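so my prof wants the structure for this chain in the tokens format not the other one, which i didnt know existed until like an hour ago. anyway here's the sequence
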Amino acid sequence: MKITSLQQVLQTNTYPGRGIVLGRSEDGNYAVSAYFIMGRSENSRNRIFVEDGAGIRTQAFDPSKMVDPSLIIYAPVRVLKDLTIVTNGDQTDTVYSLMQAGKTFEESLRTREFEPDAPNFTPRISGIMDLSNHSFSYGLSILKSADGDPASCQRYTFHYENPRAGIGHFIHTYQCDGNPLPSFEGEPKKVSISGDIDAFTEMLWNSLNADNKVSLFVRYIDLKTKETQTRIVNKNQ
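here's what i got, hopefully its the right format
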């Protein structure tokens, strides 16, 4: 698969929705994860990311304007020992709890399906990074309706072992803007990852559509020491 410019992908798509990037830094020393949210409604845009222990959660920027917290208030990132779980909904908690009980990433997600937000039926996208046993691998998953048919759930999981330096994979909820919003199709995009955490964060944030972007999370984990660096950018300050 051809390596794509993540900057170009984002700059040419006004509404990819929510997106997950997992990969390895250009120097090979870090496991890289990123998660962003976008919004078209006032309720969706009224959010920020805040740190929550080793993970993060969404929070209303102005609680007085929060209309419906379902589907938009959740913990996108949780950490379970050497596992980092990143998702676009409350399935983060599902994966965390069931993997803690001994289930696999795929088994945990079999208990869930796409979001019940007709007519979009937003896909649930999920990622996991595994730094156990002195190794590094990651996986990405998408649960989506069959071309907008809520009677059929399609489940796809992709695994990447010993990922190459400077390479990542990007999955997002929507192909592009629309009414209804068309679900992501195909394999996660193979993208290049370059620069340190600050350069990578700046590139991502500046590449997202200025009107629709809401919040961004980026984390670099040192593969030898397991030390983490985290950046959070919120449009609402």
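also thought this was worth mentioning. The domain at 6-234 is CATH 3.60.20.20 (Glutamine Phosphoribosylpyrophosphate, subunit 1, domain 1).
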